[in-house]
# Entry
Amino acid sequence: MGAIISITDLRKSYDNGFQALKGVSLDIEEGEIIALLGPNGAGKTTLIGAVCGLVRITGGTVTVGGHDVVHDPRRARSQIGLVPQEIALDIFETVWKSVRYTRGLFGLPPDDAHLERVLKSLSLWDKRDNQCKELSGGMKRRVMIAKALSHAPKVLFLDEPTAGVDVNLRRDMWALVRELRASGVTVILTTHYIEEAEEMADRVAVINKGEILLVEDKAHLMKRFGRKLLTLELAEPVTALPAGLEGRGLTLSEDGAHLVYGYDTAAEHTGITRLISDLADAGLRVRDLDSEKSSLEDVFLRLVEEEQA
# Structure
């Protein structure tokens, strides 16, 4: 499949001189889930706004489904469903009328069968006659997603879709996103829940200070930047590392009962065998071992720290 969104040298500057986007280039493939990660103020929301035609760009080009967002905005926007961070609903309107109205905004004829499928997929069908004010926060967020899907877009932007919802509802939404991808919808996700990106994304794009630091397949990213932590439980606590073990990447716990050793998962030699041998030579007996892989959060923080250094 080819790129459904092509972003080339995208720039956004404000009158005060602030550069929110600094030459961003990114191709998003049709049918993929891509997670856009970055700290607050990194440019994530500005980038989404630029693609959706909500932010006037200073330079560069953006096309959605082959349609330029500046020169052919109506056709470009018709390809996109957007679920913003803020819940914006007419609280006195029913779920059904709210979703039906949004479809009409795109100039499309009524399609009640499609809207019924959307509401059922979001477990909203039984709530269709309820006023939005009667819904929980999680249900209101589902209505926002239903409105974004009302015109059957090819691309769905989810800007912090599970902020403030409980864990069970979050996992339900993860399942829905997978179903959308399986149906051919391209999903761009921004999230503060790193485990959300780790769970769902095919690729990860990291943005900071208006620049893309990296775009990579999630599995390759974890392999390239991932680390493992090996925790060694000592048979007897120690007050300090024995001479000769300093500089080996070991960290002694406060209680002196554990040593933590970090190593690169992609390295040819981990050094664990040599380390355990050296510990024995130093008179330290190891009672138990436990290893833990680094998370995508660890990788993300490492990338941002390196870029800021």
